[in-house]
Amino acid sequence: MRTVRLLSAHLLKRFGFGIVSPLREPLLHAVRVLFFSLCLGLFGLPLCCGCQSIAEIGLFVAMQAFPEIRNAMESPAITEEAKSKAALDLPWNVVVHNDPVNLMSYVTMVFQKVFGYPKEKAEMHMLEVHRKGRSILWSGVRERAELFVQQLHGYLLLATIERTN
Amino acid sequence: MEVFRNNGALEISEIDPFLAELLRQIPESTSTESAPTAQRRIFSPPATPNEKELCAEWKIYVEPELRRHFQSAREVVAGDLRQLGEKEKPFANMSLRIPRDHSEAWLNTLNQARLAIAAKFDFSEAELCDHYRSPIGSRRDLSLFQVNFYGFLQEFILREMEC
Q1: C-alpha to C-alpha distance for B160 and B163, rounded to whole angstroms
Q2: ipTM of this model?
């Protein structure tokens, strides 16, 4: 009986807080190896975690068993509401359409001013508008896309916002 | 007509009475009243008609702001154009000085005028590229010349802004 009580006390002490030394306490180590082997079989728990505390092991087991807990631990703390809002906000394109009246140099200057693009990039988009009839100048959240379109309309360019597919 | 830079301003000298008259017509040419095509072009929709809510909100909140912005640019240009009315001799050549900080307003107003005229006359791309067409012919030819002349001025102002 005394041996069992001592073993229980050791189990509580060692599994709860301490580090088990397999050389000093071979019995405890044997129990832990048995436990880890069982976990390995059930959840893929690695054997090499012989030095972890019970709390860590419990968390690990829970993470293996419940994907929700694993996701919550592994991903940043973003609420579901924020995620759905971001999903609504993200897919918007700012599109500029061809207009034969606006001068090429003027359109280039507007792209530089509104989007802060270097001249080469602004010219590339201007030529895309000219040749293909439209160019996507920017993609991102809806509010910012609307602001860009408002600025482009202020310069009298034909610009729209579109949802991306 | 000569265009040159003078003390940080764009100066247009030797403007003959015909071109001076075209310049005076800039603010008036931007008008979209009784020209629905021009109105639609200047205040184009921000999205496809499927985005009904967005288009409706745009009309209420953004269009008035754009109108004020365009009006403000026109006022700056109209102020500068008063220089063309100061000559006593009606057929003498004139000069116009555009301060550098008025460049944006000029570019904007010239663009308003070009777009409004092009929409009113429904000029094709081929017509707009025909820079050698004589303005003496019809009202349409004169308007096309006006669009090209204003474009020429825009090019000069843009070059000035880049320097």
Answers
A1: 5
A2: 0.91
Min Cα distance B95 → chain A (Å) is 25
Whether residues B62 and A150 touch (CB distance < 8 A) is answered with yes
Residues of A in contact with B69 (CB under 8 A): 154
Q: Is the CB of A134 inside 8 Å of chain B's CB atoms? A: no
B139-155 residue pLDDT tens: 888 999 999 999 999 99
Between chain A and chain B, how many beta carbons pairs sit less than 8 Å apart? 62
Cα distance from N-terminal residue to C-terminal residue, chain B: 21
Name the least confident of A46-60, A76-90, A106-120: A46-60
- Burial group, residue B113, by CB count within 10 angstroms (0-12, 13-18, 19+): buried
CA diameter of chain A: 98
A129-158 per-position pLDDT tens digit? 999 999 999 999 999 999 999 999 999 999
Q: Is B94 helix (H, G, I), strand (E, B) or coil?
A: strand
The pTM of the full predicted model, rounded to 2 decimals, is 0.71
For A27-37, give one letter per residue: b (16+ CB within 10 A) or e. ebbebbeeebe
| The token pair that represents A116 in the structure block | 């802060």
Contacts with B, A 93-132, CB within 8 Å: 99-103, 105-106, 109
Cβ atoms within 10 Å of B100's Cβ, excluding its own: 15
